[in-house]
Amino acid sequence: MSGPVAAAYAALLAAGELRPDPDQARAAGELDRLGEELALRRGFLARLLSRKRDICGVYLWGGVGRGKSMLMDLAFDEIAVSPKRRVHFHAFMIEVHERLRAERAKGHGDPIPAVAEAIAEGATLLCFDEMVVNNPADAMILSRLFTHLLEEGVAVVTTSNRPPTDLYKDGLNRELFLPFIALIEERLTVLPLDGPTDYRLQRLQGVATWHVPNGPAATAALSEAFFKLTDTVVEDRAKVPSEELAVGGGRSLHVPKSLKGVAVFSFKRLCGEARGAADYLAIAQRFHTVIIVGIPVMGPDKRNEAARFVTLIDALYEHNVKLLAAADAEPAGLYPAGTGAFEFQRTVSRLEEMRSADYLASGHGVAEIGERGPAPPPGRL
């Protein structure tokens, strides 16, 4: 099949930005097929016959750096339908729970149909990056919510590091989640992207992940790494977007630079302000790579900042987030003295592991139990 997504993919191959990959080519064709279904639905006869049930979607899964987000971006850009929306799955679920609370407050009974209808009004094509299910609250509603979305005619394109059968693996009351897996397998085209090339890891080759000391040289190196990881061409480098990241409870966190799953923060913004585990969890779930600048050497007067840094690194580590940083010392010298300095050594160990080839090759998402062995007990500062 030849369509706009396949044509855009072919252009990237011709430009040398990608290598030929049969899985990616097949996915581009399936995304074009979805686009054709949506185009047919806009015709008079299709509307007359109500083809809504035929509009389903594509589920792209595979290891880190296999081109899932790239293909979803091509689909979002090239499929000519309106309205359409691209959103990270974690942010979408925060929004869904807030909508559900608002509907329940009205006292009109089951809130899910009304929420699905409102979402459908704003998106005929809904693109999710990094579907991952970590909590029972999400697991409980997903099957019914997505059933209603598909019945409303919403087409879904989503990416995940895991096949549908591994979503919410070993989760509490997982039997309540199984209908959602069945829904994906029945209504969406499930496509593995399992090619031999880890494009993201390729981009990290030769890139230093820890720069000492802070200063213009470190900032320039991290800026170049950001552009390399996000495939940003020179003429677009002055237009990198920011983001307001929802962290729950109606709060948000400003992300100065956010592009293709890579975020840039200052240490002062992340650890110098009153932040907690919910903020860091939202970051870890939203971004596969985080760049932090301005990490200082911390002493007894900065024990609060050190405690927040420990919580931040725990969240990033547990979600396999790649970390690039500029600091005034190597990890072992960041918090040499002060309350909890001994316990801080666990964070030092994690920072060192996060620079290893094995860690950099790991996929984004919560590590399976036992994947890295039992976690050491958390320290207190």
Automatic annotation (TrEMBL):
Keyword field: ATP-binding, Cell cycle, Cell division, Nucleotide-binding
Keyword field contains Cell cycle: yes
Statement: the UniProt record of this protein carries the keyword Cell cycle: yes
Domain of life from the UniProt record: Bacteria
GO BP term, pick one: cell division
Protein known as: Cell division protein ZapE
Organism this protein belongs to: Sphingomonas swuensis
